[in-house]
């Protein structure tokens, strides 16, 4: 029996609650599909700041490097919110681990579950045929470019006092664009359709380089795939006007952050969007949502984005495609039976079908058991 070591990073807020559901579901999957999952839990984000003073302790990186995959829940919360550049922030842990593991490609599949069509903020007819993959560059751009906060010698603040200035830099090197473009074109090949490359080439120099490089890679290696350039403001509009036009969307780090939150609403809830971060080192899987501090500890969080992230882990890191298919089918079937967490319930959802985190996890486990061959 194959043993997989998973580095668990429960993080903050609802993180520990949804992590527990992932572990429970992996237990059932291991039994059914003949694999053993071993878990090494480590600190990241606010929890790590509280325990060690830093959002990404060395020990966490050591465990992550040694693991077959990393499963991360969510980080952050008001407790650690600060605008003081000298104070640690939970997000530094997340960005730090992405960078340290070389995870330059963040894949966010936007999949519509039939049963949730009415939970979307768009009318159901707009969701017909929506099945897209957002490929977000994850270790470059504004998130990692040169930045500073400094006293501005030229400008003046209010009242004539010396002002401050701050800047972040959207910085891309050719090789960073090349490799993310290849990830997108490869994905489009297996999905068989097209790539929208999203940029702001009418304004930004980094976007002009982005566009040139994407086209060069396209012409040289992927001329069988259709390539469409789209400006990011237009993409934001197209996502709600005609989302079915998209197959693979590839874009730089921050555009991808923003557009993927927008796209998540097509699925009904940010609580349904999973992600896989792939690159040079151990791959990392995490829901796209945050730590939802407002509902933390109350057993209300939707664990499905976390479980869908487990599905991606089974596929990409362990090549357990049958198990991944079974998990996806179990989730689909629980939703088809009408079960909902609060975030995906509607006015018409019967009260008795609205469940919490643990019950949702149990339902998925039950389905996995029922469909056992
Ligand atoms: C995401 C999140 C993170 C990001 C935050 C928490 C730093 O929004 O994974 O989309 O901006 O990358
Ligand atoms: Mg985000």
Task: Provide a quick synopsis of the model.
Helix content is 39%, strand content 20%. The protein is α/β, with parallel strands linked by helices.
Oligomer: single chain
What's the total helix number?
11
What integer value in Å does the Rg equal? 21 Å
Largest sheet: 10 strands, mixed
Strand order of the largest sheet: 2-1-3-12-11-4-5-10-8-9
The total domain count is 2
Percent helix among the residues? 25-40%
What is the CATH-assigned architecture of the largest domain? 3-Layer(aba) Sandwich
Tell me about this structure.
- The protein has 373 residues and is of the alpha/beta class.
- The chain folds into two domains: 203 residues, Isopropylmalate Dehydrogenase (3-Layer(aba) Sandwich), CATH 3.40.718.10; 147 residues, 3-Layer(aba) Sandwich (Isopropylmalate Dehydrogenase), CATH 3.40.718.10.
- It has eleven helices and twelve strands.
- The strands form two sheets. Strands 2-1-3-12-11-4-5-10-8-9 form a ten-stranded mixed beta sheet, with helices on both faces. A two-stranded antiparallel ribbon has the order 6-7.
- A hairpin with a 5-residue loop joins strand 6 and strand 7.
- Helix 1 packs parallel to helix 11 and helix 5 crosses helix 6.
- The radius of gyration is 21 Å and the shape is globular.
- It starts with a strand and ends with a helix.
- The structure holds 3-isopropylmalic acid (IPM) and magnesium ion (MG).
